[in-house]
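Reproducibility note. Readers wishing to regenerate the assembly model reported in the main text can use the exact inputs given here. Chain order matters: entities are listed in the order in which they were concatenated for prediction.
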Amino acid sequence: MAKKVLIVDDSRTVRQQLGVVLTEAGYEVVEASDGLDGAEKIAQTSDLAMVICDVNMPRMNGIEMLTFLKQDPRHANLLVLMLTTEGQPALIARAKAAGARGWIVKPFKPDLLLGTVRKLVGAA
Amino acid sequence: MDASDMDEIRQIVIEASRQVFPTCGMAIGEACEPGEDLAAKQLVAFMGFAGPILRGTLAIVAPIEVMRKSYPLPFKEGARWEFEVFDWSGEVANRLLARIKNGLARRGVEIEASTPRVMLAEQLHVTRSVHGTLCSSCFASGDSWIKIWFDAMAPDNQKVLREQQGPNASTPEGDVLLF
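Running the prediction on these inputs yields the following C-alpha cells for the assembly.
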C-alpha cells in the first residue's frame, strides 16, 4: 500500500504542484488548506507517513499546527517537513524546537523535495 | 521615515522582484516608474505586513494575461482558469513579500505578513499619500508589464534601516535543511 503524505498549504496551486510530484513517485496524497484543516486531517488519518506544511496560512499557521500536534502523544513522532517562502534563521529555529524535521524554502526543486521525502519516510 | 530609507526600501523591493518573478515564470526587464494608465481588467494581488517599526501593504498589479501565462500547471478542462490564476497570483505575492522581508531583516527591520488576497479590478487608480510612503516600480514583462506598489509607513523623520550586518543569513530558495 502506498505511503500517505499530507500536504498543508493555503495555495491550491502549490498543493497541486506537490501532489503531481508525489503521486508520480507513487505516494498517496491528502490535502489540507490551512493549519486547522491540517490538524483535523491528521486526527482523521491514522496511517500518515509524513506531513509537508506551509508556515504562513490563515486560521492556524504551520508552526502553530506543529506545536498543537506535538502536544498530542499520538502524533509526537509524526514527521513534519516545512515548505515555505520564509527563510529566516529565527523562524527555522522555532520550527526545529517545535519538532519539525526539515525546512525547504519555496520554490521547491522537485528532485530535491522527492529525495528528502524518500530520505525521511522511504520509497513509496 | 527619511528619504534615504525610502530609496533603499525601493532597491530592496526591486532586488526581491528580480529574484522572484523569473522563478515564477515571468521574465522582467529594467525597473521604471509606473505610469498612470487605467487599463481594464488588471489583476491585483495584495498582502498587508506589520512590525515594531514598519507597516503597510504590498500590491502586485498586472494584466490577468501576464499571470495566466506564468501559471505553472496545465489548466483543468472545464474549470474556470481565472480562479487558478487568482490562487497562483497570491502565491507570487507571498514569495515576493518573503524576499522583501529577508531584505528588510538584513537591515534590522522585522515584519510579519498577512495572507494574500487577490481581485480583478477595472479602472484601478492608486492614490499617493502626502507622506510619500509609497514606493512603486514597473517592470516590462514580454509585451506587457507588472507593477509593484509597496506602501511602507514608519514614524516620521525616524531612521528605520540600520547598517547591514554580515552576509544574508536567510536560507536560499530551494535549499533543504534537515534537522
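We highlight two features of this model. The interface with chain A takes residues 23-24, 71-73, 84, 87-88, 90-91, 94-95, 97-99, 101-102, 105, 113, 115, 169-179 of chain B (CB under 8 Å). Chain B is about 30% helix and 25% strand.
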